[in-house]
Structure formats: C-alpha cells, structure tokens
Amino acid sequence: MPEPEPGALEPSEETRKRLDELRAVSDKAEAGDREARRELRRLVRSSSPEVIGRASDIGRRAGRMLAKTAAGGDPLTEETLYAKLDAMRAEIAGENPTPLEVLLTERIVSLWMLTALLEVLVSAQYRKTLSDGTKRSSPSYLLQQSRILEGATRRYLAAIRELARVRKLQAGAPPVQVNAQVNILSRDSL
Amino acid sequence: MAWERRGGNLYYYRCEREGGRVRKRYVGTGEAAELIAHADAALRLAREQRAAREGAELERLEALCAPLEELSEAAGVLARAQLVASGYRRRKGEWRRARA
Predict the structure, then answer these.
(1) For the whole prediction, is pTM greater than 0.90?
(2) By mean pLDDT, which of A43-57, A79-93, B21-35 is the weakest?
(3) Structure confidence at residue A186 (pLDDT)
(4) A108, A110, A136, B68: which one has the fewest Cβ atoms less than 10 Å from its Cβ?
C-alpha cells in the first residue's frame, strides 16, 4: 500500500478547531438560539470556505491513494481508475457546483472507490485457497472484514443522500454566500 | 498442550474447550505422543501466524477507511452548518424550514 505523506490525509489542528466551532454553533442555532444563527451565518461565510477547501483536498488525495492501492502497481489500471474517478466527479458535481457540492461529491467518489476496493478484497477471501497458496481466512477475520465493508457502504449511501438533500433544500433557500478556493491537485503533486 | 511427569514417565495431554469449559484430555506417551506433540505445535504456530497476518491486514483496511471517516464527518458538519445557516433545522429526523 502506498504511504501518503504524513498528515496529507488528516485535517490540520486548525481545521478540526473550526469544525468543532461550526458544530457547536450549529447545535445552538438548531435549538432556536437566534444569536447563534447569526453567528453561524458569519462563520459559514468566513470560516467554512477554507475548511471546505481543505476537506475537498483531503478527499481527493484519499480517492487517489485508494485508486493506487486498488491498481496494485499496474500503471494502466491506475490511470483507468483516475479517469473513472474524474468522470464520476464531473457527472456527480454537474455544472457550476457550489464548494459544498464539490466537497460532498469528493466524499461520494472517494467512498465509492473505498467500497469497490473492499468488495474485491472481501470476495477474494471467500475463495477456497488464496492466490499465494494460503488457506481460507478464519471466520472471525471474514466477519471483521465484512463489518468494515458494511460501514464503508453505509457511509457511501449516506454521502449520496446528503448531497441530494443539500441540493434539494438549497434550491428553495435564500443563498448564503460561500466563496471557497478548492485546490485541484495535479497528479504529479501526489 | 502439556507434558506431565508421573512416576518417571512423561504423558502428553491436550487442553480442549468444550461448551465453554476447558478439559484436559490424555493423548499418550512415548514416541507416538512426541510426534503428535510436534504436529500440535506446528498447527499452533500456523494458527498464530494466521492470526498475526489477519490482524495486520485488518489494521491496513482500517487505515484505508480512517481518512474517509474523518472526511465524512467534516462534510457532515459543513453541510449541516450551511443548512442551519440557510434557515433549516431538523425535526424528527427531517429537515424543515425553521420559523422566522
């Protein structure tokens, strides 16, 4: 498995702090605190663009790392998977996506790659003898592996639902202006 | 698995789990018991190696999932913040427009 740069797939401390802040103010605003709602609007305008940008970068890096893992060192498969991820991104995000839609799209695409990879790994375990000659895995291992796949599938489906919900609700909501710079990494930089 | 010495002789026993209880079962003595003990040791080693291999593999799988768990959480927080800021709130699991 290729090793990502240290910290490349983790939000920074600053990002975590801002997410915690957004979570806390959202809780208050949802409970009916009007002052908190005003504060949340301010935070969404000022703080979330950067956080959205960083999270999107992490999602993109994670998707590429998974594609690299799934390719198993075969450059043609790797390029094919990158192209597949790019095509999915374009299709799901559509034209002129908002930064939040870009992030939610990145999440769906990465989770699709993860579930596809896990499905291949899990199905390989059900063969009587593995390709390296070792016997079938233990039942407890198969169970744990299936649980990991189940969790990833659940998150993948939840990600699709979330994007659909955001699009549906935002279509009928007054816009909250969010300007985010989402850095699209070149393949060479990974 | 254990050897027990009684009256100058060695006797080989296996410990087996039956219905949640551990039972000691006599296997034998002499060369035959030694052969069986060697076979048991080889099987035990293979089981331990498989458990270690599977443990490492599960750790790798969890490492693959970890960044996406964090990403999912972050995306969830940001989507919610944006919806709440736009005037929505959840009611019985459904998002509704909050009263002004």
Answers:
(1) no
(2) A43-57
(3) 46
(4) A136
- The beta-strand segments (E) located in B19-93 are 21-29, 88-91
* Rounded-to-integer distance, Cα A107 and Cα A127, Å: 31
Mutate to test the interface with A, among B47, B84, B90 (most CBs of A within 10 A): B84
The reported pLDDT for the residue numbered A80 is 96
Q: Look at the alpha carbons of A97, A100, A106, A112 in this order and tell me if their dihedral is positive or negative.
A: negative
DSSP letters for A26-80: HHHHHTT-HHHHHHHHHHHHHTHHHHHHHHHHHHHHHHHHHHHHHHTT-HHHHHH
**How far apart are alpha carbons A63 and A51 in whole angstroms?**
18
Strand partners, B10: B5
Residues of A in contact with B85 (CB under 8 A): 29, 37, 40-41, 43-44, 176
User: Please, are residues A81 and A33 in contact by the beta-carbon 8 Å criterion?
Assistant: no
